[in-house]
Design a protein that fits this description.
With 483 residues, the protein is α+β, with helices and mostly antiparallel strands. The chain contains 9 helices and 6 strands, in the order H-E-H-H-E-E-H-H-E-H-H-E-E-H-H.
Length: 483
């Protein structure tokens, strides 16, 4: 009989939970990206047979330590320090671990609870009290050892929906950890390339200063020889000091970037430094894959989708309140007046019970809470779609930036070549006494400006490349979410 009852209860507990089952909010991804014209972008191969085939999140995409595509050992070392030294990442991880423990706590409600107690006492009963009976001793010992069990069968799925919600929230927090990790690594790479771009500017400015010092010396010698004027010398000195001031200003920006990188790496700023290294790397190609992969590779999209799943489970929890609560209880143990007969058959005691409770009137509270849960789910579903929209916008922005910066860089390289030619001619004319120093000064200022602009464009290309990697999700995909 007991086995039959247990089988019936197990069958009832296994019934389908009330409330709607979850389906991912719909979103139709475009078949191709719009802005894939840059040479630093590796588009997916053309579709076979005229149509795209379903792709896994990792097909033809970056994996793992995506920053290694830049082939910079110093960057690799700095990026690796984030995992152990960054406190923001640790905070996100601890938040996830807390949410994971909530799943275990929610799941425990599926099982019975057991407790045990033991007690001994020496008692004296009033001879004038209602519990006194003639012939019964007024003083006695009482030895007890008992156990209790209780269980609420999950007939309507409230507990299972609670576990489902907790699991989805924990997965969302895990995706948030991945999102923080991706942002930190991307910020590290962007700051690092900006710093190396400043090192390129420093190298250029130092070379320009050395050239201006030679020109100032030449102007002074020409003044002594009577073939130049005081104005030529003053102009040469002015230009020299101007470029020296620009070099100091670059040093300020570099120091701030070095501090930011040290903070990301969890280093002691007072002892942290990065040796100068001009940006002379080759810009790598970033594989973009097909747009549908973005839904599985961006951790912020995964987090939004998991929040929607948790909100859907809350609907089932709200619906379960319309059904009765059923609980089973049982207890047993031993009780005796004498220690010698404490643990014996005649001293045994037990009880079994069941209870059902149904709320009959709540002035519409349950209906309102159910409606609230449904609206909360729709809000999360809309938030998921909004996150997807912004993700595609982010990718297209980075793709267009790379394409336009590449075009601008090509134009700027021609401008640098033209400015260099103009400066060379003006310098020769000045040394030959054909023109004044103002012409040389103007040509050199134009050359320096164009050279710095070219370095800035190169730096921005690297930063946009990092931005593209970040917008594509780095080396992460949804298969890395915990179960």
């Amino acid at each position: 009989m007991a086995v039959a009852c247990l089988a019936v209860l197990t069958l009832l507990t296994a019934c389908k939970p009330v409330g709607p089952d979850y389906n991912r909010p719909s979103y139709d991804a475009p078949s191709v990206y719009k802005e894939t014209g840059a040479t630093a972008v590796q588009p997916p191969p053309p579709p076979t047979g005229g149509s795209w085939q379903p792709a896994t999140p990792s097909d033809g995409m970056l994996r793992g330590k995506w920053w290694e595509i830049y082939q910079d050992p110093q960057l690799n070392q700095l990026e690796d320090r984030i995992a152990t030294g960054n406190q923001g990442l640790r905070q996100a991880m601890e938040t996830y671990l807390s949410a994971r423990d909530q799943v275990s706590a929610a799941r425990s409600a599926l099982f019975p609870t057991f407790s045990a107690s033991g007690a001994t006492s020496r008692n004296n009963v009033s001879a004038n009290g209602p519990s006194y009976s003639p012939g019964k001793p007024t003083t006695y010992n009482d030895f007890q050892i008992t156990g209790q069990a209780s269980w609420e069968p999950d007939l309507w799925g409230r507990i299972r929906r609670t576990v489902e919600a907790a699991r989805s929230n924990a997965q969302a927090d895990a995706a948030e950890v991945a999102s923080v990790d991706l942002s930190l690594h991307a910020e590290m790479a962007a700051d690092y390339f900006e710093l190396r771009g400043l090192d390129s500017e420093t190298k250029l400015l130092n070379a320009t200063i050395a050239d201006l010092e030679r020109q100032l010396d030449l102007a002074q010698r020409r003044l002594a020889g009577g073939v130049a004027t005081e104005a030529d010398v003053a102009q040469a000195r002015t230009q020299l000091e101007t470029v020296r001031a620009q070099l100091v200003d670059v040093g300020v920006a570099r120091a701030q970037l070095e501090h930011a990188i040290g903070t990301l790496a969890g280093a002691q700023i007072a002892t942290f430094s990065i040796p100068p290294s001009p940006l002379d790397l080759q810009l790598p190609k970033v594989p973009v894959g097909v747009p549908s992969q973005l839904l599985q590779r961006r951790p912020d999209i995964a987090a939004a989708e998991r929040r929607a799943a948790a909100a859907n489970a809350q609907i089932g929890i709200a619906v379960s309140a319309f059904y009765p609560n059923i609980s089973l209880t049982g207890g047993g143990g031993f009780e005796s007046l004498n220690a010698g007969t404490w643990i014996q058959g005649p001293s045994a005691l037990w009880s079994l019970g069941a209870q059902a409770a149904q709320l009959l009137f709540d002035a519409g509270q349950r209906r309102a809470l159910t409606s609230e849960a449904r609206h909360a789910y729709e809000a999360q579903a809309a938030g998921y779609r909004e996150t997807v929209f912004h993700a595609f916008n982010d990718v297209e922005d980075q793709l267009s930036s790379l394409r336009i910066l590449e075009q601008e860089s090509g134009v700027e390289q021609r401008a640098v070549a033209s400015a260099q030619h103009s400066f060379d001619i003006s310098n020769q004319r000045y040394k030959g006494g054909v023109t004044g120093y103002l012409e040389v000064l103007t040509a050199e200022a134009a050359l320096l400006q164009n050279q710095r602009t070219a370095i800035s464009l190169q730096t921005r290309q690297f930063v946009s490349s990092v931005g593209l990697v970040r917008s594509l999700g780095g080396g992460w995909d949804a298969s890395q979410l915990p179960n």
